[in-house]
Amino acid sequence: MEDVQERVVHVSSSFGGGCGGRGMSHSLACTWILAPFSLTCARQGDTSVAGLWIKHDPKREPDVVVYYIHGKLASCTLNRWRPVRLTMDAQGGGFALGSCYFYLEFLLAMCHLLGKTKFNNPAIFALEYSLVPDQTHPTQVNQAILGYRHVLELVNDASKVCVAGDSAGGTLTLSFLRELGKGSKDEQLNGATLLAVPRLAVLISPWVTLVSSTHYPSRVDYLERGRLWRYGEAYAGSMVQDAAASPGLCEDVHLWETVSPERGYFVVYGEEETLAPDVEAFIRRQRRSNVEVDAMEFRGGVHAWPVASLLLSGTRGRRLQGLEAIVGQIRQKLG
Fold first, then answer.
1. Which residue windows are transmembrane per the record (predicted)?
2. 3 with 42: CB under 8 angstroms?
3. Is 291 helix (H, G, I), strand (E, B) or coil?
4. Helix (H/G/I), strand (E/B), else coil: 119
5. Model pLDDT, residue 66
6. What is the pLDDT of residue 73?
7. pTM to 2 decimal places
8. Residue among 283, 307, 303, 305 nearest 295 (CA)
């Protein structure tokens, strides 16, 4: 890996009152042990990317790594909506809810919960890919591959890696998995064909197909499909109906079988979200191909509910329901 730089970010005073205390997102905030985290920049060829490492113990090699790809695709103003660009916006959600503290809490909580299972030294690498319109497809796919290569350089074992993504992060997760299984003609994507497939993929409300008539015009979901399609078109341009940018359009059964993680997928989505029918169609297709898929539907849930519920839910159990299910799957399938 060329030109790798790491900068430690001190956070002890950022959470006013300590671990999971007053500075976090909710009056019912849980107590997280704040794992050290640092910002890393990596470059290979013409591709560069940044990411946030959260490590339980930075001095030891992790025994599990969650490679997290967030869902915030665009920085442009579309239909009078502009996400706030934050200094450390490497964390979750295909939407503009809360602040950096909210997003960081999701990752810190995940690392903390992983450390309470059989894992001795969990770590998370959260990718900070380029946003639309500054960059468009395939830049983000290239960056996702480069970020995965960076993770493998640390752990040297794909069986220790779970890739996870919410919303547009699910799109990039499926796109980069698809690239891992393609022929040598695609080696320009940072040598994607030379990389082993991760052990497990966790998809949180994945945006499987960029533009699809199956997207549900939900009355309760904050994700409106017309706006969603405009984001998809801004990202993919003329490729919006091409499987290279929109993985839900890929009908190559053999390719999906080849690139599916050894322990398959864990898919989490909300019953009332716009993407629900498309997500369910993806689950059915994978199961027909004999790919291992476990799924969890939140009754009455909306888009990216495991992320949003940390802020919105009124009880500790409800706040952590989705995240604990995700951690349980990682423990079961990578432990």
1. none
2. yes
3. coil
4. coil
5. 97
6. 64
7. 0.84
8. 283
Q: Which long-range contacts (CB under 8 A, 24 or more apart) does 331-335 make?
A: 331/114, 331/117, 331/118, 331/119, 333/162, 333/199, 333/200, 333/263, 333/266, 334/64, 334/159, 334/160, 334/162, 334/199, 334/200, 334/263, 335/64, 335/117, 335/118, 335/119
Q: Which of 167, 175, 246, 260 is catalytic?
A: 167
Catalytic (active site) residue 212: no
Q: What is the mean pLDDT of each run of 10 residues along the chain (335 residues)?
A: 38 33 44 68 84 92 95 51 29 31 77 95 92 90 95 95 94 95 53 80 98 95 92 94 97 93 98 97 96 96 91 83 96 95
Q: Which fold has domain 2-334?
A: Rossmann fold (3.40.50)
Type of residue at 202: V
Q: Where are the domains of the chain?
A: 2-334
Q: In the structure encoding, which two tokens stand for residue 203, read together?
A: 């998809």
